[in-house]
Amino acid sequence: MSFGQRLPVFLMRLREKIVDEALEAISRDFATGFPVKAPLLRTVGREAEFPLVRLDGRAADVLRLWPLFLEQGDCQPIYDQGTDGSDLIVGVETKNWSCVIEVGRATAELSVGPRPTLHDLAQDMEEALMRLKDVVRRAGFRLLGYGIQPKTPASLRLLTPKLRYLALLEAIGPQWLKFCVTAADQVQVDMGQDDLVRQMNLINATSGAIIAFTANSSVYRGRGGRFASGREGLTANMVGEPYRHGSSPRPYADLEEYVRFLAGLRCLCLPDGNGGFKQVGEPFTDYLRRESSARDPEVAYEEFLFHEHYIWPSARPRAKIGTLEIRPACQQPADSTWVPSALALGLIESADEVESYLEAELGEDRWDTLLRYRELAVRHGLDAPEPVPRFLKNLLDLAGFGLRRRAQEEEDFLAPVYDLLDRWSGPASRARELFEEGGVATLTEEVSLA
Question: Residue 185: in which H helix or E strand, if any?
Fold first, then answer.
């Protein structure tokens, strides 16, 4: 073999070494987004999405709320790049909260946090929700404590006109539009480098239980759906990668293993450096192999952060803010609005006990068992067959134990879940009952917050 024939092999090995070193650097940078140890009292934040509808149940336009908010002196506009390149108002903010529009222009998202306790979080969130409800009434719309648009199907008309969302539509296709109609209740909990991976594994493992308790999107497109959690069922596997959304295929041994898993998934698009976006359409590792980014750690890390933002595991580390984002819950009815936050925080604070329980009850095959249960919970909610008797009750008790350990009287926020177990009827079943009684109008009336 001549030198000329050996050169490509040499260059290929050099390129692999460069990519490998880039991923190691990304893992280190990602870890530094978290403190070495979590605070003794973990802070908590909440991102609560709410469907906005007209009086007849059809999707309404959140963009029409901004002028009403901006009439109030403490509200300042939030801008993003519109599809035409101009500045687009995508939300408002005060010193205590923000209200923004994300993928779907018929979904309003309130964000508050971090706060020391759930009570502190609730105080500011209730103020924000009161302000939002007032503006919604003035606009002649309704705001729903529900996990999906009940009547209007996903369509291009509902896509928020952000330039990045247009780029993602080009990358994913019509499946991307399903995010236009869903409404999650996401929790952000402080993490340290010492327990981030462990807690991520724990929440991914128990995400089926969280879904069973909180599935609340069983009626959509104007009819009863095949999923109790339509928002989880409809958005799963949207780009042909089963674990891009939902739980993970396995527990991760460390943060670098997690980063390498994400890097093996398809990179949809990236900022092009000129105010626009370039299509990629290949695994992030392949992108690094052919681009110069791998030689520039700062650029590679920023591109990785953009890439991983459009991967949606049930438990998602947020390096920019040092939290674990817990994602699988639907927006809840008014009487159980704090259940997702309390469940997630309680499970995290009782991690030792939850891990011991899962190992003792489910054994060596527990991850596969929990993945199967998660799939059933998405479809059937609280009616999904439990992996073992009293599974949900025992996890709920452990979550309550974790909250009591914090000594902040936050366990009271779990009371609505015990009521659900007493009746063994979750919000998804109630939504179907209401729809069967009087259609979308009856359902909308019952879950309306304003």
Answer: strand 185-190
Specify the pLDDT at position 293: 85
- Backbone φ and ψ for 421, nearest 5 degrees, come out as -65, -35
What contacts 304, CB < 8 A, 6 or more positions away? 26, 30, 259, 262, 263, 284
Tokens of 308: 């991983």
Which residues is 39 bridged to in the sheet? none
Q: What is the pLDDT of residues 31-82, one digit of tens each?
A: 999 999 999 999 999 999 999 999 999 999 999 999 999 999 999 999 999 9
Query: pLDDT tens digits, residue range 329-340?
Result: 999 999 999 999
* CA dist 275 → 80, 173, 309 (Å): 11, 22, 18
Scanning the structure block, which residue is given the tokens 């896509």? 159
Picking from 322, 270, 276, the residue whose alpha carbon sits closest to that of residue 300 is 270
Query: CA–CA distance from 291 to each of 21, 297, 391 (Å)?
Result: 14, 13, 49
Cis peptide before 328, with omega less than 30 degrees from 0? no
Query: Cα 157 vs. chain centroid, distance in angstroms?
Result: 23
The answer to whether 414 and 346 are in contact (CB under 8 A) is yes
d(CA 61, CA 53): 8
User: In this structure, what token pair is assigned to residue 411?
Assistant: 């366990």
Assign 1 a pLDDT band (cuts: 50, 70, 90): very low
Both tokens of residue 150?
């009940």
Instruction: Collect all residues with Cβ–Cβ distance below 8 Å to 375 and sequence separation of at least 6.
Output: 208
What b/e sequence results for 392-403 when a residue is b if at least 16 CB atoms lie within 10 Å of its CB, and e otherwise?
Answer: bebbbbbbbebb
pTM over 0.90: yes
Tokens of 401: 């134990």
Three-class SS state of 9: helix
DSSP 318: E
CB 59 within 8 A of CB 152: yes
Residues in the chain: 450
- In whole angstroms, give the CA distance from residue 169 to residue 59: 20
